[in-house]
Amino acid sequence: MTFIVGVLALAAVVCAAMALRAGKALVSALWLAGTSALVAFMLYLMGAHEIAVVELSVGAGLVTILFVFAISVAGDEALDVRTVIPRPLAIGLVIAAGLLLGWFTVAQPMAGLIQPIAAPVAAPLADVLWNQRGLDVLVQIVLIFGGVLGVIGLLADSAEKPDVKGPEAGVRDQTAEEVQL
Amino acid sequence: MTWTPLTLVLIGVICLLGVGFYGLLISRNLIKIIVALQILGKAALIAFVMAGNVNGQTGQGQALAMTIIVADTIVAVVGLALAVQVRRRFGTMDIKALSNLKG
């Protein structure tokens, strides 16, 4: 069990790194799908079976399809070489953040202070989701509808206002000038 | 330190957070930024499920993980739609092009 979890965690990290290193956006999306699938496998081994299924279908399936759709619409642009901030500074920040997280979690200097806030309750997911976390479900529904409406609004706006004038527009402008003369 | 599955998962979460954070810092391409955000979301997802298991409240952790999946997907959807719009208007996916939005 320990070996399998270790291999899965390592593979997920490698896939995530390859997703960021990939030269093409489509390849990057495929590496991200691999990361999602490995994360779903890890979740399954941790006992979260329902979450693993949702992650596999949504994270590795739906999101990948969305990426492929967006890349096919927008084009697979050659990605940047220069970075927003200097690379050594970024690496330093990431190492500092990782060390801090590792110190407070793996090393557990405050292990005596971290206690369960309530008595452990092994309630099933459906019971917690519908009875105790009803507001979360409502927020999820609002998020889904808000996201769909936002995407419809964004795409509809572009359909009404094309930016690039085609050859017909030029002919129309020329005709209008001739009429004025 | 003994290498338990919990420790390995925790190290994996930290490494995933590091990779996502690094990608968010150095990338100028909108698609890459969304990929980095997705990686950060996956790290948070594993962390919540693991915290629920450690605390003995597996249902709570999994319910929050479900919320994270939904929120992460909506972030990807809206972000990709914005990326398509930026590409159409500016002809590039470089976030430097968005500096024209400054007042």
Describe this structure in words.
The complex is a heterodimer of chains A (181) and B (103). Chain A has 181 residues and is mainly alpha-helical. Chain A has two domains: 1-88; 123-175. Chain A has seven helices and no strands. In chain A, helix 1 runs antiparallel to helix 2 (25-45) and helix 5 crosses helix 6 (134-160). The model of chain A has no long low-confidence stretch (mean pLDDT 78). Helix content of chain B is 79%, strand content 0%. Chain B has helices at residues 5-26, 30-55, 58-90. Chain B has one domain: Helix Hairpins (Orthogonal Bundle), CATH 1.10.287.3510. Chain B has three helices and no strands. By secondary structure, chain B is an all-alpha fold.
Q: What is the gist of this entry?
A:
The complex is a heterodimer of chains A (181) and B (103). By secondary structure, chain A is mainly α.
Features:
heterodimer, A: 181 residues, mainly alpha, 7 helices, 0% strand, globular, B: 103 residues, Helix Hairpins, 79% helix
Task: Please render the helix and strand layout as text.
The complex is a heterodimer of chains A (181) and B (103).
Chain A lengths: L1 H20 L3 H21 L3 H26 L12 H19 L19 H8 L1 H27 L6 H14 L1
Helix pairs in contact in A: 1-2, 2-3, 5-6
Chain B lengths: L4 H22 L3 H26 L2 H33 L13
Helix pairs in contact in B: 1-2, 2-3
The SSE string of chain A, one letter per element, is HHHHHHH
**Count of folded domains of chain A:** 2
Largest sheet features of chain A: none
Stated plainly, the CATH topology of chain B is called: Helix Hairpins
Work out the number of β strands of chain A: 0
Considering DSSP H and I runs of 4 or more, what fraction of the residues of chain A is helical?
over 70%
Question: N- to C-terminal separation of chain A?
Answer: 84 Å
Distance between the termini of chain B: 54 Å
Integer tally of domains of chain B: 1
Structural class of chain B: mainly alpha
**Total DSSP E strands of chain B:** 0
Give the integer mean of the pLDDT values of chain B: 86
Largest interface: A-B, 91 and 73 residues
User: What would you call the structural class of chain A?
Assistant: mainly alpha
**CA-based gyration radius of chain B:** 17 Å
Taken as a percent bin, the fraction of beta residues of chain A is under 5%
